[in-house]
Amino acid sequence: MMTFFVCQAQCSCNCGPFIPYLAVNFMDRFISRMEIPVWKQGKPWILRLLVVSCLSLAAKMEDTDFSISNFQGDEAGFIFDNKTIKRMELLILDTLDWRMRSITPFSFVHFFISLSQLKDPALTRTLKDRATEIIFKSQNEIKLLKFKPSIIAASALLVASKELLPLQFPSFKFSISAFECVNEVSPEFHSLVCLFLHERFSAQPYWW
């Protein structure tokens, strides 16, 4: 449900995928430390407030110009004033010990793309956009929680390159697989790639 609220907010404010991804990261960490009896106490608005506050914090971390109203929709009938949101932001910050600079797969995308040695800026952008889409959609997959952000980023780029740049894929795969942080966890790396492919094509997974 919370991820649905985040996607709604992303569409309404037209922000990139990093802010929603980081917001979900904040929410997961916050909820893991603090029990929220949302439905038992008849306060479903708490979830909406948490979503809006995490989006606000994520936008601030990204140093993005935004308006709180961009993150609020009236679909559920919950509109919060700035004072209420700031109080929730402080609660989140205190609960997370003010450790907000989370390492996400997006932190590694640019580096791994540089290994492809693509000369065409348009192709590079297309590859990045597709990998970013895969990363964002994979966030709700519980099976991926055990993987490091670098592994998720590398796998997403391999899936994107297999789909968009099949001729360059073998050399790109070789370059990424040779990288130390990927090579040292080769078995889980390949299993994650297969999972991505299976989810993407809804057919038998590709093996290589």
Distance from first to last alpha carbon: 36 Å
> How many extended strands?
0
Query: What percent strand?
Result: under 5%
Order of helices and strands: HHHHHHHHHH
Low-confidence stretches: 201-208
The rough form would be described as elongated
Tell me the domain tally.
2
The number of distinct helices, counting runs of at least 4 residues, comes to 10
Query: Roughly how much helix do the residues carry, as a percent range?
Result: 55-70%
Question: Rg to the nearest angstrom?
Answer: 19 Å
Counting helices, strands and paired strands, the structural category is mainly alpha
**Main sheet properties:** none
Q: Compute the average pLDDT.
A: 76
Domain Cyclin-like: 4-94
InterPro entries: Cyclin, Cyclin-like_dom, Cyclin-like_sf, Cyclin_C-dom, Cyclin_N
Family: Belongs to the cyclin family. Cyclin D subfamily.
Organism: Populus alba x Populus x berolinensis
How would you describe this structure to a colleague?
63% of the residues lie in helices and 0% in strands. The protein is mainly α and 208 residues long. It folds into 2 domains: 2-95, Cyclin A, domain 1, CATH 1.10.472; 106-201. Helix 1 (2-13) crosses helix 3, helix 5 (106-114) packs across helix 7 (149-164) and helix 6 crosses helix 7. The longest helix is centred in the middle third of the chain and has 18 residues, at 121-138. It starts with a helix and ends in a 7-residue tail after the last helix.
Describe this protein with a few key phrases:
single chain; 208 residues; mainly alpha; Cyclin A, domain 1; 63% helix; 0% strand
